[in-house]
Amino acid sequence: MGHSFFSMQRIASRSGLLGRRWYSSATKGGPSIAGVGNIIAVASGKGGVGKSTTAVNIAVALAKEFKLQVGLLDADIYGPSIPTMMNLHAKPEVSEDMKMIPVENHGVRCMSIGFLVDKTHQLFGEVMSALEKMTRGVAWGDLDILVVDMPPGTGDAQLSMSQRLRLSGALIVSTPQDIALIDARRGANMFCKVQVPILGLVENMSCFKCPKCGEKSYIFGEGGAQRTAEEMDMKLLGDVPLEISIRTGSDEGKPIVVSSPNSASAQAYVNVAEKVTQRLNELAEERRMGPEILL
Ligand SMILES: Nc1ncnc2c1ncn2[C@@H]1O[C@H](COP(=O)(O)OP(=O)(O)O)[C@@H](O)[C@H]1O
Ligand SMILES: [Mg+2]
Q: Rounded to an integer, what distance in angstroms lies between the CA atom of residue 68 and that of residue 63?
């Protein structure tokens, strides 16, 4: 079987990425962790829209398909789910210089707030000190991208995390439902307030494709994410259907980009991952070209 247009494109872009070392992020002073080129947030205004599923599949796609050094940081204080989704059950070990060693699976180095704390509702100060431990207290090594699964919402914890991490960009995840899109807008506004560029919007659970007859049902409405993206001047980076194998993959710790790499849904995640790398390269370029005053 020959290469499809898409896979040829991917090979071309992969070699482009490998050929150069990224400059540090578009944010002032670069990302907050030494050796880490870019820190991106995967965020949603609302819980349960598929933020963690997206973060996991994008992180694995970046490592597997684009051969990048990738880390995944689970900062969701309300419901850490990376240990389950990445099938990680051992607590991280501590190095000689007292740093936690990330646990690796599917080619991605992971750290979760779930490894550090048992209870989910904590005081603001405790959350921030756990975040500090999970960033500078971790032996991440050199990373091209650290993907952060953010807590849902736009409160003080989210705002403060976005600032402290010095994010290169944020990816917003939403379902097409109006109520989720309102929260997605709120999320995007929060990042704008702290001058974090929005990489784009991912529409999750865009439709349900009947496994028997193939008919598509737009359970949460159709076209909402596209409209919201246009209104807010964001790019719609992709849409992922509601599909049983995505859910079972998450529950079993085997993301769909690993369990069914040739499926349309896995390809949708790979596509989003590619657009993320392109956008980060553009932002790094803009930063290099921009006048001093903007840096
Ligand atoms: N596209 C999808 N198709 C089927 N199930 C999905 C999809 N996206 C997420 N899920 C499932 O929905 C639930 C919530 O997703 P999750 O990623 O944990 O959301 P969040 O992190 O935003 O709370 C999980 O059980 C997950 O497996
Ligand atoms: Mg989650």
A: 5
